[in-house]
Amino acid sequence: MKPFKLTLLAITTALFLQGCGDDNDGPSTSQPDQSDIDTNIVGFWSEDSSNDNSLSAISFMSDGTYVQVQVDNESLVDDPQGGLEWGTYEINSKTGELTTTQLFDENGSMGLSDAPNLSARISNGKLILEVDENENGSIDSDEQYKFSEIQPDGIVGAWSFDDVDDTDDELIGVAFLDDSQYVHVQVNSDLSVDNDENGLEWGTYAINPSTNQLTTTQTFDSNAGKGLSEPSTRYARVTDDEQLILDVDDDSFTFSRTAVQESVDEQMLSGLWRMDLGNEELVTLSFLDDGTYVQTQVTGPTSSRGSDNGIEWGEYSLKANNELEIDDVIFDNNGSSGLSDEVLRTVQITGDILTLGVDEDDSGIVDNDEKYQFTKAKSENELGIWKARAGELDDELVLFGFLDDQTFFHIEVDQDLPYEYGTVPLAGMDWNTYTLSNNGLFTLGQSLYSSTGGDDLSFYYQMSIKIEGNKLTFIGYEDQDEVQNNDGEDVIFDRQ
């Protein structure tokens, strides 16, 4: 199989909240046909069998963490089965098998940590958890648990504290359900179940529609001294449906939504993304307005670069669960690198970070060591990715990519050469340093990489670039006479 041979960057797990339960309904069932499994479980879910005297909810985050909360009776803090479970999870996209690793677990024998042969799927809008509790190899009628999604709306939903890095805590979250229940979770950096301040708070809430004052009543409280149980005056407000601000006495605390599946679209992907590597290495992904992608790869020391360096150009589409599908590879000269192999790939965008997941071992799960991070390149002035406008050249693809380290790459692919130059097809990439003067004079610097056999932009006697919004005009002069006669060749590029 063709691996995506890139330097691995660690993916930091975030924090959030929710939980699972333990009831059943429906007849005995077996695993559905694999082709019909929907494993898009990211969300905030409440178990259908919960009532006023019990709590069972779970939150699956897109960063691979989960929070599960459970209280089965009214015995408050004395309930040995009640409390909080927090950890990481992986789900097999082919079978629905769900595996978890716990970071904090104070809910006794309940939750995902004690669920043998666990699987999960979405069916008719419900989260279905199946647990082979008697380990007989099949799912009996009392081993299936159904959850309904709590749709984010105003204050309703799951929220994570923004400034947790500035505290001694690992996890601070609050969730408001649509039935006037709330949940607060908190875990300090010691991750100890013996710490009285670590745990779950559950109760009911009300908000004054005129003043936004938030009042709470506790049903269960195992995080002594934390949460919303302390006597204080609190006000709650939501801004742009994305941030929750809790004003408590003289302090203000900001939370962001979590457990929300961020669906990536082509507009979010559009542009140039770069992996953070060494000064002599270049790994980028560009998604163009015509539904194609371009990957560049230059890795390893200059003196020992192998056949895995070069470019790849193809067509892509986005599927359910943020799956990135490569529909066609048009040009590929980067050996065993790139995206041309048939393997499960996912994309996730958080701010300016693109996380590319690659199921390299074909297990149906994108493991943490199969995730690669790219940072969105600046797109201002000449910086960013530019594509030659249709009809400007005979070539199928001509790109400029300008980076903020004063380097640029130039890509051309076709059987016919651009700029009416030479007789050898120019297909590949050149990566150089450059300078751009205030009057637009474009000057090549050191060559960092070339896969075009030397047929690059250096044959121009002089070059200039003019930027007008999202249009770049490249002007190249092949000899001194053309410069004097102002007879250079103009090529118009559009920003991607």
Can you describe this structure in just a few lines?
The protein has 496 residues and is mostly beta strands. It is 2% helix and 45% strand. The longest helix is centred in the C-terminal third of the chain and has 6 residues, at 480-485.
Keywords for this structure?
32 strands; 496 residues; eight-stranded antiparallel β-barrel; mainly beta
Q: How would you characterize this protein structure?
A:
The protein is an all-beta fold and 496 residues long. 2% of the residues lie in helices and 45% in strands. It has an 8-stranded antiparallel β-sheet with strand order 5-4-3-2-1-8-7-6, with no helix packed on it. It has an 8-stranded antiparallel barrel with strand order 9-10-11-12-13-14-15-16. The chain has an 8-stranded antiparallel β-sheet with strand order 21-20-19-18-17-24-23-22. Strand 14 and strand 15 form a beta hairpin. It is elongated and about 90 Å long. Mean pLDDT is 83; it is low at 1-35 and 416-425.
Query: Strand order of the main beta sheet, please?
Result: 5-4-3-2-1-8-7-6
Instruction: Outline the biggest β-sheet.
Output: 8 strands, antiparallel
Strand % is: 35-45%
| Uncertain residue ranges | 1-35, 416-425
Gyration radius over CA: 28 Å
Number of strands: 32
How confident is the prediction overall: mean pLDDT? 83
First and last CA, distance:
31 Å
The helical percent reads: under 10%
Q: Which structural class fits the helix and strand makeup?
A: mainly beta
Note the total helix count: 2
- Overall spatial form: elongated
